TrEMBL record:
GO terms for molecular function: DNA binding; DNA-binding transcription factor activity. Residues 20-88 form the HTH gntR-type domain. It comes from Nesterenkonia sedimenti. This is GntR family transcriptional regulator. The keyword Transferase does not apply.
């Protein structure tokens, strides 16, 4: 058995005594490996013979499991190549832009949905001390992209800005756009931090992935053009559906010289490398 097949099937156990048929168990296990990107688009899958030998199942069980994944569009078959993980579009978000996920993803023409899970008033939590008001409006929302859960968002707003918001108007809408229209403000800045984290049981349930799956956590504040902090937020993104892009700008009139820009460029590269290493550890 080759090393690639051993790695793909590592820790994969089927239970003949379970109520779920063996072919369904196998399809679920391989599906999970594809969705959490342990199996990457274009990567070869074990053959039916390899699955039969490694897992002690009949070839018909292996064939039925693969046929299920082909029907779902997760696996492609081609003559001479065998079964491979189908290409899967990943949506990109610019982490440094003030615009939220809804606005950025909607710009690409895909369908973005928003479900409001919670809308309450609460005292300002300790981590949201940047907000000027002691009373806040707290939001929990779930974003979907083309029907798939993609991001879970927690947001704290100053009570004066969040007053009067309803679940109905926030459903399938952009919070930023509502705030700008209602309060005649422009959201222009803020700060952002990105970390790779593993999904706990609750996040896995909300985002339709497995416990321990890699997520990208974006935390920060958004400010209006006058510097007022408008929101404090935390957003957990499914790592298999969304990627973060970091723009590195070239020099412009009045911009820093190349030597002066080098530390910032190195920092961006180091940030990207740290995220890649964290995601690699999470998917091992």
């Amino acid at each position: 058995m080759d090393a690639h097949t051993d790695w793909v099937l590592e820790d994969l156990c089927l239970d003949p005594q379970a109520r779920e048929p063996l072919h369904a168990q196998l399809a679920t296990a391989l599906r999970d490996r594809i969705r959490d990107r342990r199996l990457q688009p274009g990567e070869d899958l074990p053959t039916e013979v390899q699955l039969q030998s490694q897992l002690g199942i009949s070839r018909s069980v292996a064939r039925q499991a693969m046929s299920t994944l082909v029907a779902e569009g997760l696996v492609s078959r081609s003559r001479g190549r065998g079964s491979v993980v189908s290409p899967r579009g990943q949506h990109h978000r610019l982490a440094h832009r003030a615009a939220g996920l809804s606005s950025q993803i909607a710009e690409t023409g895909v369908e973005v949905g928003t479900q409001v899970l919670s809308l309450d008033r609460m005292r300002r939590p300790a981590h949201a001390e940047q907000l000027a008001e002691a009373e806040t409006v707290y939001l929990e929302r779930l974003r979907s992209i083309d029907g798939l859960p993609a991001a879970y968002i927690r947001t704290w707003l100053p009570a004066s800005l969040g007053e009067g918001l309803t679940s109905k108007e926030l459903t399938d809408s952009s919070l930023h756009r509502i705030l700008e229209t209602r309060h005649a403000i422009t959201l222009t800045g803020g700060s952002r931090q990105v970390r790779a984290v593993a999904a706990d049981a609750e996040l896995a349930r909300l985002l339709g992935t497995r416990q321990g799956a890699p997520l990208l956590l974006l935390e920060g504040v958004t400010t209006a053009s006058d510097g007022t902090v408008v929101e404090v937020f935390s957003t957990w993104h499914r790592g298999d559906l969304i990627a973060f892009d970091l723009d590195v700008e070239d020099s412009a009139p009045g911009a820093a010289s190349a030597p002066e820009r080098l530390p910032a460029l190195q920092e961006a590269q180091q940030t990207a490398q740290r995220l890649a290493e964290q995601l690699h550890r999470l998917t091992r």
